[in-house]
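Sample log: ribose-phosphate diphosphokinase.
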Amino acid sequence: MPNIKVFTGSSHPDIAKKIADRLGIDLGRATTKKFSNKETNVEIDESVRGEDVYIVQSGCGEINDNLMELLIMINACKIASASRVTAVIPCFPYSRQDKKEKSRAPITAKLLANLISVSGADHVITIDLHASQIQGFFNIPVDNLYAEPAITKWIKDNIPEWKSSVMVSPDAGGVKRMTSIADNLDIDFAIIHKERQKANEEDSTVLVGNVRDRTAIMVDDLADTCDTIVKGAEKLREAGANKIYAILTHGVLAGNAIDKINNSCLEALVVTNTIPQDKHMKQCPKLQTVDISVMLAEAIRRTHYAESVSYLFSNVPY
C-alpha cells in the first residue's frame, strides 16, 4: 500500500501490530518517552511528508498520559507535512461524560473532541462509542464502527444452542444495541429493568421477558467494575436461565472486577481486544476475547482508497 503509515502509541501496540500485519506493511518508527519531570516526548523517526498517516492509541491504561501522547503524535505528524492524519481510537476515552448529569458538570467528551481536532487530526476511527451523539462533537469526519458483526459471528461459532437462546440487555441504556443483534440472529430478547418503588429505597430489578430453561446472552458496550453484569447474571439465574454469557465491546475490568467475574454464575465473559486483555486472561479463566483488528485494518484500507466503510457496519471482513 503506497503512501500510508501506521504508528502506534504506548497504550495498545499489540492491536496496532495486528492492523499493520493485516495491511501488509510495517509499523512506522516512532519513539515515545518521558522526561524526568513526567513530560511526554515523541519523536517520529521516519519521513511522513505527503503520507496518509494513521495513529493507533486506545483509551486505556494511563489514560491521561496516553491521550497526551496521541495529541503530540498527531501534531508532530501534521507539522511534518503529512497529507492526512487519522486518529484510530479503538476505545474512546471519557465517552461516558457526554452530557451534563447535574449543574456545573463538564461535558468532557466534547472537550476531548476539541483537543483532537485542534491537535491536527483530519479524521477519527473508533468502535462502539458509548453515546453515538459524540460524533456530533467533532467538526471532522468520525467513523464509529460497530462490534456487532464480530459479536454475532462469535455467538454463532461458540454457542451451539444460539437459535433457542435469549438476548438480554442488563439495563435500559443498551436496549437498542441488544435488539439489533437479536433481530440479526432472529431470536427472542429480554430486558433487565431497574426501578425504585419509593424514595430512599434501594433499586429493585425486574426482568421483562422469559429466559427459563434457555441460554441467556447479555450484551453491553462497556464493563468497568462489572457490578451491572454480575447482578444481571444473578437475576437471570433466579429466573431459571440454564447458561449465562456476557459479551462486551470494551472490557475495562477495573478494581476487583476480575474477582467478581470469577465468583459469578457466568459461563463466559467475552470482550473485544479494543483494550489489552493478556493480564486479565491469566487471572480469569472465564474471560475470552474477540479480535476486531481486522475491522480496523479494513476501515483504514477503505479510508486510504476513498472507499465506503458502511459494509463494515453489518459484515466482518475475511
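Observation: The longest strand covers residues 215-223.
Observation: The chain has two domains: 4-145, 148-290.
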